[in-house]
Each structure stands twice: as C-alpha cells, then as structure tokens.
C-alpha cells in the first residue's frame, strides 16, 4: 500500500523579537505542535526564542527557551544592621 504523499509545508519567515534576526522560512513535511522551545522549527539560538509552528504568522507565539547560565550576578550588598551611635 502506498503512503499518501504529504506535501511540504513551508513556514514563512519571521523575525526574532529579541534581535530581529530572520528565522526561517522552514520547509517540513511533518510539523510538530510546538509547546516548548525545542519543538519550534524556527528558533533563534542566540536569544533562545522559538516561534511556534503555525503557518499563519498572526497565530505564531514565541516561546522563550531556558537560557544558558550567564555570568553570575553581582551579589547584593549585605544588609548592615542599623548602626547605633556609641553611648557616652
Ligand atoms: Zn534573536
């Protein structure tokens, strides 16, 4: 039995909302439902932002992936207890 021919679906290009880079267009036969960054076919690796796999750009949502750990934040200044003036 022959498999039905699946047409290629082309997801139009989008622009990364983070850096403006062009994402896609992407051609695929099997478009998964994107619920997380890793599922997105159009991704910006730099911003870790993925566009969901909707063909209609109006229906695309952007998913923020987990960012790789960056340089550690400077530690907040330790809270100093209120200074009591020296008693005479
Ligand atoms: Zn980007």
Describe the structure.
The protein is mainly beta. The protein has a domain at about 10-65. The chain has strands at about 10, 15, 20-25, 25-30, 40-45, 50, 60-65. Strands 5-6-7 form a 3-stranded antiparallel β-sheet, with no helix packed on it. A two-stranded antiparallel sheet has the order 1-4. A two-stranded antiparallel ribbon has the order 2-3. A hairpin with a 6-residue loop joins strand 2 (about 15) and strand 3 (about 20-25). The model has no long low-confidence stretch (mean pLDDT about 90). It binds zinc ion. Zinc ion (ZN) binds near residues 16, 18, 19, 21 and 46. The site of zinc ion (ZN) has 8 residues, from loops.
Descriptive tags:
binds zinc ion, two-stranded antiparallel ribbon, 0% helix, mainly beta, 3-stranded antiparallel β-sheet, 88 residues, single chain, 22% strand
Mean pLDDT: 89
Shape: rod-shaped
Task: Describe the sheet with the most strands.
Answer: 3 strands, antiparallel
From N to C, what is the helix and strand string?
A: EEEEEEE
Order of strands across the biggest sheet?
A: 5-6-7
Q: Helical proportion? A: under 10%
Total strand segments: 7
Task: Record the SSE blueprint.
Elements (H helix, E strand, L loop, with lengths): L8 E3 L2 E2 L6 E2 L2 E3 L13 E3 L4 E3 L10 E3 L24
Antiparallel strand pairs: 1-4, 2-3, 5-6, 6-7
Bound molecules: zinc ion.
Task: Characterize this entry briefly.
With about 90 residues, this protein is mainly beta.
């Amino acid at each position: 039995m022959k498999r039905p021919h699946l047409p290629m679906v082309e997801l139009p290009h989008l622009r990364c909302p983070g850096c403006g880079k062009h994402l896609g267009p992407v051609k695929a036969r099997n478009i998964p439902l994107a619920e997380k960054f890793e599922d997105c076919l159009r991704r910006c690796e730099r911003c870790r932002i993925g566009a969901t796999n909707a063909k209609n750009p109006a229906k695309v949502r952007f998913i923020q992936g987990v960012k790789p750990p960056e340089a550690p934040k400077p530690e907040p200044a330790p809270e100093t207890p209120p200074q009591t003036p020296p008693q005479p």
